[in-house]
Amino acid sequence: MAKHHTNEMSFLDHLEDLRWHLIRATLAIVIAGFAAFIMSDFIFDTIIFGPKKLSFPTYKWLCKISTFIGIDTTFCADEFPFSIQNRTMGGQFSAHIWTSITTGFVVAFPYVIYQFWKFISPGLHANERKHSRGFIIISSLLFFLGVLFGYYIVTPLSINFLGTYNVSNEISNEIDISSYIALVRSSAIASGLIFELPIIIYFLTKIGLVTPKFLKKYRKFALVIVLILSAIITPPDIASQIIVAIPILILYQVSIYISKMVVKNQKKKEKHV
């Protein structure tokens, strides 16, 4: 059984406490993953392979915009010029397992964060715990927003660019299932984690590693890093990188504001001491 009396806990007790929180978080992921494994038809046909169909909402939206502007685009085509296939004996089973685990992690994320919070909260002051009650809700909301952004924006842009890219008519695109799923998974999960930036900055400011002055001073460097991140998780075309960079830059500005609020509250506490 996990212990929660932090003042009386030794280093080994902390490790034991952490072990139980990790076990509970892992169990939640496994349970959610098992449910996703059973619902394979919906997970694969509707979610995973949804962005492969040009009837996907994002393509319809981009097609309407392109038509309105008068630009010729692949978003208005009937279907993508590539097929997905499996080349190994265990390929489909492996894809089924890893997709289920990934889905389990996404679904169970609020509970995973809850377990993380249960581990660190005993080390906080009562006042700090009171002001941080919305941590689980806010971090989960940011993560889900990031996953949706990755799924509905980053993934379709990547599939449209890479799936239609052709260096020669002698080459046909026959994409392996593992490669396709890796693209969908990395786009969604990476975006979800990037959207956690304000939460990360909050804790870094709390422990004194980051200040609003530091964030403002290195804003130009942050812009370069954002563009590099955008280039990593999106296809190498300028439009896609800008679309991804905008929300990350907004999150960075929000992080500066959050850092200011943390420093302001800390100064207030120091005055009252």
Automatic annotation (TrEMBL):
InterPro entries: TatC
Compartments where found: Cell membrane; Membrane
Membrane-crossing residue ranges in chain numbering: 21-44, 95-114, 135-154, 188-209, 221-236, 242-263
UniProt membrane topology term: Multi-pass membrane protein
GO molecular function (one): proton motive force dependent protein transmembrane transporter activity
Keyword Transmembrane helix: yes
GO process annotations (BP): intracellular protein transmembrane transport; protein transport by the Tat complex
Name of one Pfam family that matches: TatC
Keyword Cytoplasm assigned: no
Annotated keywords: Cell membrane, Membrane, Protein transport, Translocation, Transmembrane, Transmembrane helix, Transport
GO annotations of cellular component type: TAT protein transport complex
Purpose of the protein: Part of the twin-arginine translocation (Tat) system that transports large folded proteins containing a characteristic twin-arginine motif in their signal peptide across membranes.
Complex formation: Forms a complex with TatA.
Entry similarity comment: Belongs to the TatC family.
Protein name as catalogued: Sec-independent protein translocase protein TatC
